[in-house]
Amino acid sequence: MIRGLGIDLTEIDRVKRLAKRHPQYIDRILTPREQKQYEQYSNQRAAEYLAGRWSLKESFSKAWGTGIGKQVGFQDIEIIDNELGAPIVTKSPFNGRVHASVSHTGQLVMTEIILER
To answer: Which of the residues 16, 36, 99, 104 is marked catalytic?
Structure first.
């Protein structure tokens, strides 16, 4: 049974500019394990990864029904790419199954989260 569905669309360059202006932004968005994956990338791929995690966590918070804020924050959700590059939610406040999808263009990242009981 589906408990929630969330989608998000994020501009990659906007996230890239924020990270450049405010380096602490990366620590706010990414968990330590996500940061290890992020550090493996450079240039556009790094920007896509960071924007993808931002967008996936926004999608999760929408599926959860709260948005990012007091009930769920960026550090409460962790999404690690598996060996094939698929995003896997490894930590969240939801006790069911979490399905994650991410897709990029040169300018945008689109994500979807489905919460299933």
So the answer is: 104
Query: Is 104 an annotated catalytic residue?
Result: yes
Please state which of the four CATH numbers 3.90.470.20, 3.30.230.10, 3.40.50.150, 3.30.420.40 is assigned to the domain occupying 2-116. 3.90.470.20
Catalytic residue among 22, 62, 91, 99: 62
pLDDT score recorded for residue 24: 94
Q: Rounded to 5 degrees, what are φ and ψ at 4?
A: -165, 155
The whole-angstrom separation of Cα 33 and Cα 38 is 9
Every domain of the chain and the residues it spans = 2-116
Q: For the segment 37-48, what is each residue's pLDDT rounded down to a tens digit? A: 999 999 999 999
Residue 91: active-site member? no
